[in-house]
Amino acid sequence: MRKTDETIIGVLLAGGQARRMGGGDKPMQAVGGQSMLARVIARVAPQCDRLILNANGDPTRFAGLGLPVVADAVGGFPGPLAGVLAGLDWVAAHRPEVRWMLSAAADCPFLPRDLVARLDQARRANHTPLAVATSGGQSHHVIALWSLDLRESLREAVVNEGCRAVGRWMARHPVATVEWPVTPFDPFFNANTPDDLAEANRLAALDPC
Asked: Whole-prediction pTM value?
């Protein structure tokens, strides 16, 4: 579902170490017969003009996806803000005319198909440089629409201040929020543990890709 005339580049955040899943590439775990990452791509690609993947380590392991792979902008696995900054830097370097970027977690296999349209509508209505997805009263800070104008502010926070908390950094800026229902399930469910993965496979029957 795409109902915006704005050019949007999407960055899928897969740069974490997946400690609670036992390590490895968590988004490559299977849900409903395909990887979580494949499910995320299937949902987000129709909503964006292009996707890139934020991941660390050997990028050739993702070669079959056909996506540019961008490592964290800061070493040491500092968290998703570094992945967002890497995405913003990629957009600025390769698509300098683009003013907006979507970030989405690569371990959320049920992302809504109206994600970009609703976030874009909210940031326009509220005249904000950020729009964030929420559900069940919880903000999902890594699932957001970002203005490229935030890039240097984010770099200062991540590189020079050592800021790691996405919500804490966002609190410095005006943010629009968009609420999604949590029935029949939360579209922002993410699989962090083996138990979560089992639940994701159960939910996949309710929302086939």
From this structure: 0.92
